[in-house]
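Posting this for the archive.
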Amino acid sequence: WTRGEEELKEFYTSMYVPFIQKTHGDASYLYSYGEMKKMYEEGELLIAERNGEMIAGLLVHYKGKKVMMTSFGVMDGHEALANEGLFDSMVFEVFLRGKEKNNTHVSLGYCRSFLKDEAMRFKSRLGSELLSPCHETSGYLTFQFLQESQSLRSLLIHHPFVCTQNGEYRACFFVKAGEPMAHEDLQMLFRDSLCHGIKEIQIYDFLYRGAEKALEGVSMVADRVSWQGFSKLMEPAIRTNDQMLLNQGDAILLKAGR
């Protein structure tokens, strides 16, 4: 761990900026050095070294009793290490540091709201909880389901997501089953995809034509699991009032009309 300014400059210019740009391309959002330096005043930098040379860094800052994981970066040529245990080890070290400083919570930062996204799954496996929605400050895009198609079905089946409805988080899954699945099949569907803070799991079945059903005892995370036909999202009365709100890289929201 360090609080040196030279190490921060090296981290920012040689690890953070190149790594984020290489990972996210034109969609990159970068803190300015001034913004990072301001956070550094209330934080510190965890450095990973190999043969005495810096290869990665993880910036944290402290807010009350919370450790905020802010920025991660890897030196050019060592990116593969991030997926081979390096990042996991550094996160574990942050937890140990928080305990050492008597912090009670660790903020794991933002991630995409797609439930199969590896960053989301990694954080879910740590027992994380979804907190205040970032769309309140970052904004969102809007779109509607206008026509069911094979491409739409494939997109939704392979990319379940988190949404908000009535101010609460929902997990939305899409399937082609025709009837509610057995509990063991549902567990496979949810595997490594759910975290605390989800109020309800909504499963939309492209083949189901019955009334909405509540499924009991299939989730340790959500208060309620519902099974319903995808056609519900295509009904004219709903289609004209409902809109799905897609956050810019952070969250997907489903706003139900009344």
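The CA atoms of residues 149 and 155 lie 10 Å apart. The first helix runs from residue 5 to 24.
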